[in-house]
Amino acid sequence: MDSTEKQQHNPAVRLRGLTVGYGSRLLIENADADFMPGRLVGLIGRNGTGKSTLLRALAGLDKPLAGEIDLTDGVGLASISQMTLEQRARTVAFVTTKKVRIPNMLARDVVGMGRAPYTDWIGRLSDADRDAVDQSLEMVGMEAYADRPLDRMSDGECQRVMIARALAQDTPVMLLDEPTSFLDMPNRYDLCSLLGRLARERGKSIIFSTHELDIALSLCDDIALIDSPRLIAMPADRIVAEGHIQRLFASSSVAFDPSTMRMQFKQQ
Amino acid sequence: MKSRPAILFALLGAVIMVLLTADMMTGSVSLSPGQIWDALCGRGDSATISIVRRIRLIKALVAIVSGAALSASGLQMQTLFRNPLAGPYVLGITSGASLGVAIFLLAVPAFGLQSAALSQMGIAGAAWIGSAAVLAVIAAVGRRIKDIMVILILGMMFSSGVGAVVQILQYLSHEDALKSFVMWTMGSLGDVTVSQMWLLIPAVAAGLVISVAVIKPLNLLLFGEQYAVTMGLDLRRSRAMIFLSTTLLAGTVTAFCGPIGFMGLAVPHVARAAFATSDHRVLMPATILTGIALMLACDIASKCLVLPINSVTAMLGIPIVIWIVLKNNSITRR
Q1: In chain A, what residues touch B276 (CB-CB under 8 Å)?
Q2: Which of A62, A75, B19, B22 has the greatest number of beta carbons closer than 10 A?
Q3: pLDDT class for B79, splitting at 50, 70, 90?
Q4: Which domains does chain A have, with CATH numbers?
Q5: Under an 8 A CB cutoff, do A85 and B227 touch?
Q6: Contact, A38 vs A200, CB < 8 A?
Q7: What ranges do the domains of chain B cover?
């Protein structure tokens, strides 16, 4: 985090000729993109276009079908396929859509597990680790919940704890798969502005997939749009100006209105 | 916060000492703690010394070792498969062992393949080879499979398949051989000889060392495999270590004592409820100690009631599982 200035000109994530999909089905083909540190990126696209698949590849969970994913290693870029599991866990954190409810495990312990790439063989937390846990809980506004178990929290609170866990992992890159999906409207906006703040204040590159067009367009710095099989990445205002949203997010009954930045029903 | 596990561990230690003494006291001849102590120190009449040293002590040690082994392995299986009903046997250890024993007791005499080498190996050797072979097959197939649930289903299907083969062998064999086989399936802590202890103890000790070594991976696996991997878990290596430890623990105990049910399934739940934690740094030792205490209790009950150990563990284990599942819904709500 201290090296943010050095990283300013280097991307945190670089995709070169990336092709992802499963089996014989290609979802994204030959994509090139740079994601810079300190910026919040909204990954959008219609259902089944490969948002989760792309995030899983970026997290190193699935191998891409072709191409390279380079992640920042503090100084320059390193290929994700060359990293050890521990290096990768220190570079990219992932918050999945899966609900985690471990009986009797306190929020503090859940966040503490984020320190796993730094702890010894049995996972003992040092004082520095404990500070990182407290800081992470504070950043997401959950310090008052530290000693509460996750199974006695709302979905929004759990989501914040899981983000704190990813923060405790202290990685330059953070990925989130539809983090707003179980949340109500105010919580969705709160969560996304929290992500924006984390990106800007901590110099992280945060990429999250979402179906909330208006949230993504109003709160994200950049948009990565899957226009199968292309991946279009550019600043949020430009992607609207170039008409990509109107073109892609339209059906027989609704269309995107760039003047209000919202979906509108078509007049019959 | 910190004091609750400490008090419980101290309590468990005391309970184990009491149960160990009680276990050594019970048997066809009742002995007092004083007599046992004297016999252990080599004082008193030679008959008592021989009973205490050669029978009671060995059997109590077997109870301790098997209780620790089955419980530690059950905990690993429940966490690995994220399934509260998993136990040491879901990967086909019992069915593999019973196939080995069935071949040894039923098929070998039936086909007239008796040989010195085979009978030397004994039931235990046959059972160990059977369970290790089944586990090796599951582990080899499992290397290509990402989804742990698929491995669970494979293990269970494979077990049923092997069970069918065992049934055919039973159907084809003579009454005497069949009776020996049925006796083996009932389990026994008393058939282990002193020389076999030198195999049982090191194998189980190695398995327990691995159980402690996988504490951090197990804690990560509580979050599910995806999360665990993004936090740096080496999934293949962890799975391989857990499989190996289960072979050493449950495989070895099953080989020497027969398939002892419900300990591996019930004990981790008792430990979880008593210690109110999911953290394996507390849960692993808690499970091992609870397993030791419960197995000693089961051995005492089986001696007093003159019942096979397997029926005692089932009668004790089933109510425990039902009670805990009903009392604490959060176990089933993973």
Answers
A1: 104
A2: B19
A3: very high
A4: 1-91+173-178+204-268 (3.40.50.300)
A5: no
A6: yes
A7: 3-79+87-331
